[in-house]
Amino acid sequence: MPLPLARCAIHTMTTKPWSLAQAAEAYAHAGVGGITVWRQHLPAGGAAEAGRIVRAAGLGVAAYCRGGFFPAADAGKRQAALDDNRRCIDEAAAVGAPQVVLVCGAVPGMPLAEARAQIRDGLAAVLDHACSAGIRLAIEPLHPLYAADRSAVSTMAQARRIAESFTRELPDPLGRFGAAGRRAVGIACDVYHVWWDDTLAEEITLAGRLGLLHGFHVCDWKAEQASMLNDRGLMGEGCIDVAGIRRQVEAAGFTGYAEVEVFSDRHWARDQQQWLGDIVRAWERV
Amino acid sequence: MPLPLARCAIHTMTTKPWSLAQAAEAYAHAGVGGITVWRQHLPAGGAAEAGRIVRAAGLGVAAYCRGGFFPAADAGKRQAALDDNRRCIDEAAAVGAPQVVLVCGAVPGMPLAEARAQIRDGLAAVLDHACSAGIRLAIEPLHPLYAADRSAVSTMAQARRIAESFTRELPDPLGRFGAAGRRAVGIACDVYHVWWDDTLAEEITLAGRLGLLHGFHVCDWKAEQASMLNDRGLMGEGCIDVAGIRRQVEAAGFTGYAEVEVFSDRHWARDQQQWLGDIVRAWERV
Fold it and tell me: How far does the CA of residue B109 sit from the closest CA of chain A (Å)?
């Protein structure tokens, strides 16, 4: 049985050619319940205006994308990353998002152990700011394909071990965080990145039990991809058992949005209204 | 300190344009100690002639590549895969290899759980044949990049759990297997496939302790790759800490060949004698 469309959130990057205002209006018109706002799609008026746009459209905000990229070759760049993450947290609060999704970062040539230490230090450095702003940090483990240059955090287990090591909880007077919990550092589970992992089911269960399952992203993995970055499939176009993983996530107690995040030069080149129609049909089918 | 070249084996696929006879002569002339023979490079006279060629060149045989690809959509194809694996084992014995490297297989659209069950069944079905032939089966976990269509076994931990479940040991009257052990089912650890894994060091140690570390393959991961298949780097061209992983493997008790396995359209298009020179220099540097 499909989830109701009210549980669907779409990443603005999924309809990259659209402005935030276009995207918000179209998603709401299609009956989609939520939106995940990417920084690239902030309007001229900034995050506060973005918040007004999505509220006016009646959309919930699943997350704000994206922070992270903590490791850097020198102290100046690391400090710049921290400053940028704090700005990102402030923007997330202004947009009305409960959390920032973190792509943790990696630097080609930097030993992974060093990158991981810098990621841990970076998280620790921005945690106070996130807690003050009431914004969760959701570590998104990225497919090992991206371990060299985008994320030295590659698996659910690895993200869980990092998230577990930060035990702070956020205040939640408005009950914004729901069943997913108030842990300040948690996990965003994206099927594209973790579907291959033979420990996925147990890690989803464990993340749910620990209150660390902060986000759930869906798309599909095509066996043949024209690009390692921007040729993801819509649910049903590839070989991920999206419905099965979704059931595991639900069984682990997750009640948030399932966020449709598809990077695809192919689909971005199409009429975005037709593409949105395909997304809604794929949602109802998968 | 680099390992002596006597501990180096080169996969015939690394110098794909060369025949086995050309490769064997050139490797030996360069001072390389061993060779891993790919089925594609069997000469017209078959595996027995291949064995004569490598022995005449004075090369040791690290492994025979490759078996596996167990999962298939129907029983006929699964049976064909078993028959082919038995032939592969016989060829390995004729070539004089101690082991067959297994790329376990995956079928786009087949649930990974089903593919993994078929892999386990396939291993069980050919194990008697391997034991009779005195040939080890070395499961090569493949990068999760290939989980859809090449290997539903993606990590050292997963390969170790499978290998652990098969407890048979081979007779070894000639001491062919050395410190790596007589376990009939073990692991071939290729840095390209596993370098990103934050549990790699502990899994190498564990595999060594359990006697499951049957093979060690080296190349490099380039952050930018022109092809998901054939744009691997030579050691030093990418971002893998090959020397560090090699030390871990040595510390785990591995005394076999480090096998150079580089698939690269770019390097294959070059003069192969110059390419071999680069390989030897990279070996001595890394």
Answer: 5
**Overall number of domains in chain B:** 1
* B238 contacts A144? CB cut-off 8 A: no
A90-143 per-position pLDDT tens digit: 999 999 999 999 999 999 999 999 999 999 999 999 999 999 999 999 999 999
Question: Cβ contact (<8 Å) for A238 and B111?
Answer: no
B151 interface with A at CB cutoff 8 Å: no
Contacts of A227 in chain B (CB under 8 A): none
Q: Do A143 and B144 touch (CB under 8 A)?
A: yes
* B-interface mutation test, from A155, A164, A196, A200, most B Cβ less than 10 A away: A196
Q: What is the CATH number of the domain that holds B31?
A: 3.20.20.150
Q: What is the pLDDT of residue B174?
A: 81
Q: Are B162 and B185 in contact (CB under 8 A)?
A: yes
Please say if the pLDDT value at position B20 is more than 90: yes
**Closest CA–CA distance from residue A203 to any residue of chain B (Å):** 14
Please name the residues between 79 and 98 in chain B that touch chain A, using a CB distance below 8 Å.
none
- Identify the band that residue B171 occupies on the pLDDT scale cut at 50, 70 and 90: confident
Provide the shortest C-alpha distance from residue B272 to chain A (in Å): 28
**Which domain covers residue A223, as residue numbers?**
5-285
pTM, 2 dp: 0.96
